[in-house]
Amino acid sequence: MKTKFLIAFAVLGLSLASARSYTINVDAPSQAGTLQLKPGEYKVTVDGTKVKFTEANSGKSQETTAKVEANGKKFDATAVETANVNGVNKINEIDLGGTTTKLKFD
Fold this sequence. Notes:
- The chain is about 15% helix and about 50% strand.
- The protein is α+β, with helices and mostly antiparallel strands.
- The model is unreliable at about 1-20 (pLDDT under 50).
- It has one domain (about 20-105).
- It contains one helix and ten strands; from the N terminus they run αββββββββββ.
- β2 (about 30) and β3 form a beta hairpin.
């Protein structure tokens, strides 16, 4: 019985962890995976490899996929790594603050 309770609690914890959201700011028009993001504040929600970006002002959301990787230690804050490729601002990675998770976009 105790084992079943612990397993159920662990599964519940994992499902709640996947529902957590993070806030990022995009300073310039940017590409994240297959998405084009306008400048502004976004709430980022991760469910497996699916990443949803929700605009803070309008509530409009878009989804794409990312490679989810673990880092050796927790990130202190959520951070966005970008690069300018052929004149296009691309989001390469988002480090999720308070976790060891990073999202990598192709």
